[in-house]
Structures are given as C-alpha cells and as structure tokens.
Design goal:
8-stranded mixed β-sheet, Rossmann fold, alpha/beta, about 40% helix, about 250 residues, about 20% strand, 8 strands
C-alpha cells in the first residue's frame, strides 16, 4: 500500500519547498519508490526538483474534453487516458514526477475527471511513497487524485495570515470529507517555537518548525534544484529530524 503524504498550505509559505525536500529525503534514505505529484496549478515542484515538465495532465484533459471522439478506435476512454498519463509521467533518478497542471477549461470534464480519478488511484498504488503538493483549495484531493492520505502536512510560515490559512485548510479537510490518518502543522522560517496560543484554534497536531535557511532562499531566488544542495543545510536537517512521524508507515 502506498504511503501518501499530502502537503498543503498558502502560497509563499514554503509548501512546495517542503514537498521537494520530502522527495529528496525519501530518495536519499532509499526508503522506497517515490512519486512526486505537482497538484498546484502554479506547477513549481518540478523546478524545485530540477525537472522541466514537458506535459501536464491538464493538457491531456483539455485535448480529450475538446474532442472526445479523438480516442483511437478500439480503445476505451479509460485506457486512452491511462496511456496519456503514463506518457506525461517523467522518470528521474530516485523518483518519478507528474504535474496535474492548471484548472480545466471550457470543455466538458465531468466524465473524463471520473476516469482520471481511477487512473490516478491505479498509478499511486505502484509506489511506496507519494508526495502530493496541493494548492490551498485541495482541488485534486477532493476531485481528481485521492480522497485519503496517510499524512496531511499543512505548511505555514511565521505570520498570522499563514496560520489563518492553515486553520481554514484544516476546516476544509473536514468539509470535503478528506480522510487523513495524521494531520500535522509545520511552521516554516520561525526563529523560535511558536507559543501554544498561536496554534490553539488550528485542528492540526503541531509537528515542529523549520528555521530560516539562507541556502534554500538563495536556491529559490536562482531557480536552482534543491537536489543539488549539500546534505548539511539547516532546512533539510530539521525536516529529517521530523521525518519519522511524516513517512513512518504502519
């Protein structure tokens, strides 16, 4: 069974960076096969991992929704979507990555989205670990990929706005009926552990904080891959210390 780790949070909180570092740690520790799913329409996970995404699942859905009769003769729609998704899957050293792309366009997507859910469930089951970088609205968890995860990791920064966004995401998980065995709050770029009063309204278990890391900041400014940084930078070491709770399987 795949160990699915869904990462969510407001844009700018370090959510995608955290997802990329989790992929790196799973790869470096050789914990098992890993699929990185970029489910944020901004699609920055590939850049953080040094991957140039050539085609997204959104591109595939656009083509099929615009012309449903484009499916080759003798193929079912499900088989055709599965084949196209496999083509969009990029194999990298130590992990694979797939980008979901932007929200759907003006075509009819209801049927093809139902097919996509079945295809994605089949795909994620092929991996030991699946890291899903979500947008704050959790669109792909609620509609397109999977409605359950072993771990929901909500990332905030050390701001009132970031923590309020984390609180809203925790409430949204309940409203959407998304199941998670563990629901954690991770605070990025906090110089000291936040007081409990800052977290008391958030229905998430506070797992810890990641200190400000100038190496990560410089890599982000330059658009460099986090996989190329050394092994001793503060952000990676702090996340590694918390990792047992995040990727430990039952």
């Amino acid at each position: 069974m795949s160990h699915i780790i869904a990462v969510a949070g407001k844009g700018g909180t370090g959510k995608t960076t955290t997802a990329a570092l989790l992929v790196r740690l799973i790869r470096d520790k050789k914990l098992g096969s890993c699929l990185a799913v970029d489910a944020d329409p901004n699609s920055n996970l590939g850049e953080c991992l040094g991957v140039e995404v050539k085609e997204t699942v959104g591109d595939i859905l656009d083509r099929i929704a615009a012309d449903p009769d484009k499916v080759p003769q003798g193929w079912t729609k499900e088989r055709y979507v599965e084949y196209q998704v496999q083509l969009a899957l990029q194999e990298e050293e130590g992990f694979d990555i797939i980008s979901m792309g932007r929200p759907e366009g003006p075509g009819c997507y209801c049927y093809v989205n139902n097919i996509l859910r079945a295809v994605m469930l089949k795909l994620v089951n092929d991996y030991d670990f699946v890291i899903i970088d979500n947008e704050a609205g959790l669109e792909h968890l609620s509609r397109r990929t999977t409605r359950s995860a072993q771990v929901l990791l909500v990332v905030s920064d050390a701001t009132s706005v970031g923590l309020k966004a984390a609180e809203r995401i925790a409430k949204l998980v309940k409203e959407l009926g998304i199941k998670a065995d563990k629901k954690f709050l991770l605070v990025n770029r906090w110089h000291k552990e936040p007081g409990i009063d800052k977290l008391k309204n958030i229905d998430l278990e506070f797992i810890g904080n990641i200190p400000f890391d100038s190496e990560i900041m410089q890599a982000s400014l330059n658009g460099d891959s986090l996989l190329k940084l050394g092994k001793d930078f503060a952000g990676l070491k702090a996340l590694e210390d918390l990792g047992g709770k995040i990727w430990q399987q039952k």
